[in-house]
Write a structure and sequence with these properties.
By secondary structure, the protein is of the alpha+beta class. The protein folds into two domains: 14-73 and 212-232, Pseudouridine synthase (2-Layer Sandwich); 76-208, Pseudouridine synthase. It is 22% helix and 34% strand. The protein has seven helices and 14 strands. The protein has helices at residues 26-37, 61-65, 68-72, 108-115, 139-144, 183-193, 227-232; strands at residues 14-20, 42-44, 53-60, 76-84, 86-88, 97-100, 120-125, 133-134, 137-138, 153-167, 170-177, 198-208, 211-212, 217-218. The strands form three sheets. Strands 1, 2, 3, 4, 7, 10, 11, 12, 13 and 14 form a ten-stranded mixed sheet that branches. Strands 5-6 form a two-stranded antiparallel ribbon. Strands 8-9 form a two-stranded antiparallel sheet. Strand 10 and strand 11 form a beta hairpin. The protein is globular. It starts with 13 loop residues before the first strand and ends in a 7-residue tail after the last helix.
Length: 239
């Protein structure tokens, strides 16, 4: 009788900080890391959409994955660019345009005023194209199937730390927010407050709790990274 080989546990348990490139899903990064480190025991501290770049924390090994809930609850900081005038079905640049609107003339004071009701504890709409589950199915799967869904909302806390007009129809912003925040939703709501449609064209996660993207391993190098190098980037658990 031939016994099936099982993947060994990693040499150490800890955190692997990755700077995720665009056009990779978080699950792509996890799958590549599992193959290099030869372990199935890899969790995460919150995924990023394929368009998004930035900090992704992988939890390597049994001890780390047991603490996943604590890492998922950490606050996060993002920078983003909002393009006004067009709404897409995903509320980002990877979606299909749904409607177009005129963009009113804007001054910095108009943008500052628009974010005031979107600050503090707010009720945000959850994008239909999201990993939220309804009846055991991801909303993005239901959306791709054309299923009708009732809009879902959740309560989050948002602090706008930077806000600027990049061009007459583009706004750059940085937010510090609680877990469960969809920055695409914040872009949608901000455009709505300004009297037009909008969608994100860039999104980057800068921080998760005390961890920042400057500490992370460049995800563009991941596929060709030797196991010893990647193991060398695994940090001790600090939560």
């Amino acid at each position: 009788m031939t016994l099936l080989k099982t993947s060994p546990e990693p040499q150490k348990s800890g955190l692997l900080l990755i700077d995720k490139p665009a056009d990779f899903s978080s699950h792509d990064i996890i799958a590549i890391s599992r193959r290099i480190l030869k372990t199935k025991k890899i969790g995460h501290s919150g995924t990023l959409d394929p368009m998004a770049t930035g900090l992704l924390i992988l939890l390597i090994g049994r001890e780390a994955t047991r603490r996943q809930d604590a890492f998922l609850k950490l606050s996060k900081t993002y920078s983003a660019r909002l393009k006004l005038g067009t709404e897409t079905d995903t509320w980002d640049a990877y979606g299909t345009p749904l409607r177009h609107t005129a963009v009113p003339p804007l001054a910095p004071a108009d943008v500052q005023a628009a974010v005031q009701p979107l600050s503090g504890t707010i009720r945000q709409p959850i994008p239909f194209f999201s990993a939220k589950r309804i009846g055991g199915k991801h909303m993005y799967d239901l959306a791709r199937q054309g299923a009708e869904m009732e809009r879902k909302y959740n309560e989050v806390t948002v602090q706008w730390t930077k806000l600027s007009l990049h061009s007459p129809d583009e706004i750059d912003f940085t937010v510090h927010c609680s877990c469960g925040t969809y920055v695409r939703s914040l872009g949608y709501l901000l455009a709505e407050k300004l009297g037009c449609a909008g969608h994100l064209t860039a999104l980057r996660r800068l921080e998760i709790g005390p961890f920042c993207v400057e500490q992370a391993f460049d995800g563009n190098l991941l596929k060709s990274c030797p196991a010893e190098t990647l193991y060398g980037r695994v940090e001790a658990l600090t939560l």
